[in-house]
Write the structure tokens for this entry.
Amino acid sequence: MCACGPMNRRHLLVLLSGVASSALMACGGPSSGPEPVRWGKENCDFCGMLVDDPRFAAEIRAPEGRKVWKFDDIGCAALFLAKQPWKDDPRAEFWTGDNADGAWIDGRAAWYVSGPKSPMAYNYAASRSQRDGALSFAQFRRTIEEKGQNGLCQVPQSGSN
């Protein structure tokens, strides 16, 4: 028996939360949601440019939940997604920064507005709320795929898989 006395509910909760935290860290972090970005210190997984503006940044999490790719422009993210065999898998997550405040929002539920100058000149911004002329996620993806990669975006060989 413990010299500290019997284990009460609080001790058990503290012990269990420590075990859960350790298990999560051992597995490489959460398997859902956006990951923190080291703004200005991480490169776009599509074009290689620095990810430094939360209002245009995006992340894609693979269907199995472990692998996350980060992007400096939501256009880069849409083109990257188009190349994946799991591009239409509903388990794949697409996160983007809200253009108003840079907070992460679910990219599949976001509305995309043309016009704001974005880092790689795809010139779309995401918003939580629908506006006149805003595109749904499916419409945004189709538009970017039809437009294709622009001249500013030089995809490195290692960034496209």
